[in-house]
């Protein structure tokens, strides 16, 4: 046993030594025969040859790398044969022994150009069909495939029967005609059909080489065809010359193949510059007639095309409206107004711009022109602005989704507010009022950014209306209402005239207010005629004027419904908000101003009035009475106030019947009052400058209104002293 083992080891050593020798030999031979190759490539080739464990590997190397390299092929074949001889029983080579001689002969013959296929049936004679007994190395299952394609097409049913996926050497094949890949690892109907047809492509009908030899033959055929096509007749002649000069067909073909390869490499290098990527996904192409599409793809493409068409149609219908809040403009570019899709909302703008425009003009050019040129007046009132805003109610706002970052939001110009408030820094505006500031706005902007499309009015309501109000507030702060404008102060010589006018007017008032009920007032209501002297009235006027010009001064309040009160108002102590019918610490819906405090002079006056009230009527008003809100209303000659109850004070205050003390200064006015909501049955008293009305206790909830002002009835002295503008000033104190 031991001796045997030593012998075995020695044998192996010998084998190894001769294999190693063989290895260096083949390397030297290859270096010589492939002297035109890079040394590194030769080395790598020799390594592959040495690593080959079966004849098939050698054949593949020859086929892939060495077409026409006869000397190199000879060296490799010799190397293989020597190794087999040397290895004897070595398992690495054993399996291939039976195949070797046949294949090496075959390769040798190929290298010699003896088996280069020529197109045409005549070539059948040179195919393996004539040596059916030969078992070729590439047919591992011992199959009897004929390596020639022509032999296949001649149709031997026996051969076809033998051709199965299992006995193919290469299981994945590729048609060089159309590129179709045949993966024979899975036996599908198509693969079966392909194999039944002996490798004829089921798509384009080209012959797909199934064997090593067929592949080699096809390769050489392609190379020679390419060479002749590329170089034309000259090359053909040269080719013939080559043949005439003794060069083999294979050598010529190989040369052509090399040239072709070089061109391909060159093309590949340059391709980046030449290649333009066309995304044909986005191109229009025939969906129905395109045979390459699956049903699923066709369905998807149809769907996509439909969406694109819809988007295109929607784009045509879309109208762009520019809302310039600062310039108070609503502009609809004519180019973006499609006549056919002119919408109701744009019609609204048109009619709001031109009240005479009838809806029938919706589709005509004049309507479009009016839309296109709709402008709010530069000093539009809030009412006009609100009308313009509500005309946009049905329109949609689209925020460009391509905007990088938060979408634009409707933010008023903070600078304007600061500039207008002058000495009052922005920090003096309470937090609730500063809600237009960037911090809040950016949160809103973020919210907007996530909502690309929404209801314009919803957004406009939230931002735009506030902006408009803010603008209006800013405007009125920049132009505060002056109770006593200097330019209206009369010259000395006009005083006499104005006194005469006043007397005349007062006479008219008394006449007009024939149903004067001043002596027939309900319990709890008292009229103190001429309670305030001109001097005291003037003091109050001057004081109110000063407050009215400052922060929280006179403004024009609005109702929730959008209409405005027909007076200027300033709240002292607490702000009364007509929109919510409530009292607030700041004028939040307008400019966020904090109302000025009630001057002590007024608080004292209230107490004085209550005493006088009791003294006159014998009715002691409920108390203790500490007014914390005072509304200063100024009615110009057309000013008025509707029939209402003062009921926004606290339940406790109302329940106690804590009185309202009302002071009239300036022009006379009618004051209607009643215990029921019917104004038609209300009583009327004329209130003149200096009069004070008190309604508390059982009269606390009277309905009342100021339907009419008598212009020019204010005391001329008052006018002379204060320069008060024409109109009526009323101060009502309440305890909230
Ligand atoms: O102006 C007036 O005389 C009445 C005012 C009034 O009723 C009010 O401010 O609530
Ligand atoms: Fe009132």
From TrEMBL:
Compositional bias per record (Basic and acidic residues), positions renumbered to this chain: 233-242
Coiled coil residues, start to end: 290-324
Pfam families: 2OG-FeII_Oxy_2, TRIP4_3rd
Segment forming the signal sequence: none
Domain Fe2OG dioxygenase: residue ranges: 626-736
UniProt family annotation: Belongs to the alkB family.
Protein name listed in UniProt: Fe2OG dioxygenase domain-containing protein
Organism the protein comes from: Chlamydomonas eustigma
């Amino acid at each position: 046993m031991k001796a045997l083992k030593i012998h075995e080891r020695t044998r192996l050593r010998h084998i190894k030594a001769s294999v190693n020798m063989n290895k260096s030999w083949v390397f030297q031979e290859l270096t010589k025969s492939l002297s035109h190759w890079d040394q590194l490539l030769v080395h790598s080739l020799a390594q592959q040859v040495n690593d080959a464990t079966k004849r098939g590997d050698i054949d593949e190397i020859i086929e892939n790398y060495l077409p026409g390299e006869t000397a190199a092929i000879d060296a490799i074949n010799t190397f293989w044969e020597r190794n087999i001889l040397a290895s004897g029983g070595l398992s690495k080579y054993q399996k291939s022994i039976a195949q070797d001689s046949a294949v090496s002969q075959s390769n040798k013959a190929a290298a010699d150009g003896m088996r280069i296929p020529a197109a045409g049936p005549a070539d059948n004679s040179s195919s393996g069909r004539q040596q059916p007994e030969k078992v070729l190395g590439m047919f591992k299952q011992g199959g009897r495939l004929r390596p020639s394609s022509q032999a296949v097409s001649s149709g031997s049913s026996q051969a076809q029967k033998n051709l199965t996926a299992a006995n193919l050497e290469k299981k994945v094949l590729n048609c060089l005609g159309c590129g179709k890949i045949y993966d024979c690892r899975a036996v599908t109907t198509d693969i079966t059909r392909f194999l039944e047809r002996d490798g004829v492509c089921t798509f384009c009908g080209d012959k797909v080489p199934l064997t090593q030899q067929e592949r080699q033959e096809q390769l050489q055929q392609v190379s020679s065809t390419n060479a002749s096509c590329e170089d034309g007749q000259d090359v053909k002649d040269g080719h013939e010359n080559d043949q005439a000069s003794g060069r083999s067909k294979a050598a010529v073909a190989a040369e052509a193949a090399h040239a072709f390869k070089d061109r391909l490499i060159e093309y590949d290098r340059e391709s980046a510059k030449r290649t333009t990527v066309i995304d044909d996904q986005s191109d229009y192409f025939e969906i129905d007639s395109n045979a390459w599409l699956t049903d699923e793809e066709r369905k998807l493409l149809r769907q996509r095309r439909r969406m694109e068409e819809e988007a295109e149609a929607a784009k045509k219908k879309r109208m762009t409206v520019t809302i310039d809040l600062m310039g108070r403009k609503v502009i609809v570019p004519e180019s973006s107004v499609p006549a056919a899709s002119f919408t109701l909302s744009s019609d609204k703008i048109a009619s709001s711009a031109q009240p005479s425009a009838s809806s029938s003009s919706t589709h005509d050019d004049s309507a479009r022109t009016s839309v296109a040129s709709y402008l709010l007046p530069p000093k539009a009132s809030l009412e006009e602005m609100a009308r313009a805003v509500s005309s946009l109610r049905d329109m949609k706002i689209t925020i460009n989704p391509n905007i990088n970052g938060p979408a634009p939001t409707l933010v008023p110009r903070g600078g304007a507010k600061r500039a207008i408030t002058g000495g009052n820094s922005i920090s003096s505006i309470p937090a609730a009022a500063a809600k237009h500031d960037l911090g809040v706005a950016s949160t809103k902007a973020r919210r907007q950014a996530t909502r690309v499309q929404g209801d314009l009015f919803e957004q406009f309501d939230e931002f735009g209306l506030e902006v408009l109000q803010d603008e209006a507030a800013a405007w009125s702060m920049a132009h505060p209402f002056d109770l006593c404008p200097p330019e209206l102060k009369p010259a000395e010589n006009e005083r006499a005239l104005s006194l005469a006018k006043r007397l005349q007017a007062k006479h008219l008032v008394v006449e007009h207010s024939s149903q004067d009920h001043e002596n027939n007032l309900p319990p709890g209501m008292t009229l103190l005629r001429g309670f305030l002297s001109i001097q005291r009235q003037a003091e109050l006027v001057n004081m109110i004027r000063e407050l009215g010009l400052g922060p929280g001064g006179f403004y024009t309040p609005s109702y929730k419904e959008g209409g405005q009160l027909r007076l200027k108002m300033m709240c002292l102590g607490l702000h009364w908000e007509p929109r919510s019918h409530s009292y607030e610490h700041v004028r939040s819906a307008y400019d966020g101003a904090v109302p000025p405090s009630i001057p002590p002079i007024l608080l004292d006056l209230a107490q004085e009035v209550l005493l006088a009230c009791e003294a006159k009527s014998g009715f002691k008003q409920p108390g203790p009475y500490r007014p914390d809100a005072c509304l200063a209303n100024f009615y110009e000659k057309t000013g008025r106030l509707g029939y209402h109850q003062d009921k926004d004070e606290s339940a406790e205050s109302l329940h106690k019947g804590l009185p309202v003390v009302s002071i009239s200064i300036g022009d006379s006015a009618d004051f209607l009052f009643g215990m029921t909501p019917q104004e038609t049955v209300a009583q009327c008293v004329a209130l003149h400058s200096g009069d004070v009305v008190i309604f508390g206790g059982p009269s606390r909830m009277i309905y009342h209104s100021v339907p009419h002002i008598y212009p020019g009835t204010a005391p001329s002295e008052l006018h002379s002293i204060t320069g008060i503008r024409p109109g009526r000033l009323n101060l009502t104190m309440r305890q909230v």
